[in-house]
Amino acid sequence: MNHLYLERHDTENNMHRFYQMFVTPGLFDDWSLIKEWGRVGSPGTVRKEWFDTQEDAIVAGKKLCAAKCKKGYYAIRTGK
């Protein structure tokens, strides 16, 4: 999982949200999970979380993805 894009739509409540995640290497042999979320079509809020290994960042991303899917988000497109 290098990139994951999720969306959630609820037209009755006018809710059209996205959540995306990227796993990228840092400058000091570390890895980051970059998370962005917000309303579809608008710029989102971005946060970074740092990890010692790529595997740790991927595991954190997968856990977050599972939690989002339980709330009604679904994958639109994914990276490698």
UniProtKB/TrEMBL annotation:
It comes from Methylomonas rapida. Residues 1-80 form the WGR domain. This is WGR domain-containing protein. CDD domains: WGR_MMR_like (cd07996). Coiled coil: none annotated. PROSITE patterns: WGR (PS51977). InterPro entries: WGR_dom_sf (IPR036930), WGR_domain (IPR008893), YehF/YfeS-like_WGR (IPR049809). It comes from the Bacteria. It holds the Pfam family WGR.
